[in-house]
Amino acid sequence: MTKTSAASTSRAPSKAQVKAAELWLLDIGEEQAGMIKAGWQAAVDAPGDFGNDFYRALFTVAPGVIGLFSGDMTEQQGRLTHTLAETVELVDRPATLLLLLRASGVRHHHYEVKHAYFSVMRDVLIDTIADRAGAVFDAAHRQAWVAMFDNMAIIMQDGMASAAK
Fold it and tell me: What is the pTM of this model?
């Protein structure tokens, strides 16, 4: 998918986009799943705190999202890292992953997350993983993560749309 996919537009994804994302996630290739897992593992094994690095970069690139967060960011950083770890683990159980993503979409609707934030989140997330993973994370890893994130975003946005009804 490209940056003009449902992951970056301001409207809910179409039924065809949702179906295509579901099929991609249900049938993720072993090679892509392996690259996603390897990139993630290298990123979380790197020195420092993944969540801190991610939010520092996000708030630099998109300071307008700071208002979506309140309280101690340490807890939020931990939740992000935990959720991403769970997501990566569920690559091998895609039906459960789809349920998690839809529920996350409903929560993000209530947090007032805008569809346009997804492309910024994707870019910052993947850049943070790449920076922390170092040489382990090559162009194929990036491509696998972009596809994974874009398809996950469509499912989440579908969850957001259903919560808005």
Answer: 0.88
